[in-house]
Amino acid sequence: MGAACLASRAVGVAPQDLKYDGEPTSVEIGKETVIRECVTISRGTAGGGGTTRVGQNCLIMAYAHIGHDSFIGDNCILANGATLAGHVTVEEWATVGALCPVHQYCRIGRHAYVGGGTTITQDVLPYSLTSAKRETRAYGLNKVGLERRGFSRDQLRALQHAYRLLLASNATHPRR
Description:
- By secondary structure, this protein is of the alpha/beta class.
- Helix content is 15%, strand content 26%.
- The chain has a single domain, classed as Hexapeptide repeat proteins (UDP N-Acetylglucosamine Acyltransferase, domain 1, 3 Solenoid).
- The longest helix is centred in the last third of the chain and has 16 residues, at 153-168.
- It is elongated and about 50 Å long.
């Protein structure tokens, strides 16, 4: 691979949507966001609002893809090879691990951490750890990330209690 390929980015390219017919659409990138080599970010589509948005202070690592009409909140990380289909929402402070495909219309909740190699086909709970190691589902609180962001012990205790109730109810899994 040559140096030119390593330095290339494709930001604001036409969306990969068969309904797109050349209409004017856009991409918005927030301040202090870092976009590394070989990243692709597609413009929005008329049917999806017309704009793909990436918030401020995000890190979009090498070979990541952000599909049309997606919304990435502030302070997010998309690790190497994270792939977001169209219409994906990643809320503030969320991290999507390396080589994670995220299905269209999914939402990654705020402060969530998705472990590398996890395929996301449904919404990810806010504040959660989600990983393919234990099936693709939330299995606990993102305590380390929340502590690093200054959440108090009382806040962590309240979130932990809520998660125990939610996970015990089995409400985080689709019915089969």
